[in-house]
Design the sequence.
């Protein structure tokens, strides 16, 4: 997991095809959510995911927190990558791995102001059970912990990248205009965008997607190889 670009909130098959053609690595499908409404049905998400071929992969993004439900839902959709965006006990994460050792688990780290110490503790607690982390932004106005369109303090994400033995993906308020700066400052293993490449109707905008991917790829090339980037390869 290195230099990954994920775009989440896929509306339909045509949108998925457009993103694939422009070189997106991960397509994120937020389903069974706490706050936001789903972009498409579980059945349609499964149909799209099952058409994907490497190097493009479908990612289930969910707030489920029970191991059996997570594993069964991933099997239903046909995905082997799940992004767990809600609170979940370490025992449940361990059980997910015991139920399906091939399932790649990405655990969210939600930045709520200056809560670095709390998130650092979560990295220590969850590292044995996950394959990667993703930092994202909390919106106090809605209670949302993703798809907020709001950036957080990138200093916190950079410090987490420096201490984490697992790859960290950066999310939260990224756009074609700021993604290069974000990558060069935070030096994450990947970036995730949802609302930052959408038009006024909530559809993925081809021009924004193209510019986001181009700016991200170029920024990844400029990051010098460091101890914590080598550790993720």
Sequence:
């Amino acid at each position: 997991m290195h230099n990954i670009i994920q775009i989440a909130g896929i509306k339909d098959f045509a949108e998925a095809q457009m993103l694939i053609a422009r070189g997106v690595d991960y397509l994120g499908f937020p389903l069974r959510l706490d706050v936001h409404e789903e972009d498409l049905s579980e059945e349609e998400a499964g149909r799209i995911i099952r058409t994907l071929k490497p190097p493009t992969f479908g990612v289930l993004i969910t707030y489920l927190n029970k191991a059996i439900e997570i594993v069964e839902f991933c099997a239903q959709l046909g995905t082997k990558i799940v992004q767990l965006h809600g609170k979940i006990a370490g025992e449940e994460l361990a059980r997910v791995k015991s139920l399906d050792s091939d399932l790649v688990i990405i655990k969210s780290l939600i930045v709520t102001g200056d809560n670095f110490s709390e998130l650092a503790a979560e990295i220590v607690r969850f590292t044995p059970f996950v394959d990667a982390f993703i930092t994202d932004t909390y919106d106090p106005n809605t209670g949302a912990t993703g798809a907020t369109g709001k950036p957080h303090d990138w200093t916190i994400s950079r410090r987490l990248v420096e201490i984490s033995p697992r790859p960290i993906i950066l999310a939260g308020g990224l756009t074609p205009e700021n993604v290069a700066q974000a990558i060069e400052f935070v030096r994450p293993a990947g970036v995730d965008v949802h609302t930052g490449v959408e038009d006024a109707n909530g559809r993925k905008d081809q021009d924004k997607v193209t510019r986001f991917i181009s700016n991200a790829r170029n920024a990844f090339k400029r990051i010098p190889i460091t101890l914590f980037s080598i550790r993720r390869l």
Notes: The beta strands are 4-8, 26-30, 57-62, 81-84, 104-111, 132-137, 168-170, 190-193. The two ends are 7 Å apart (CA to CA). Residues 46 and 76 are 7 Å apart (CA to CA).
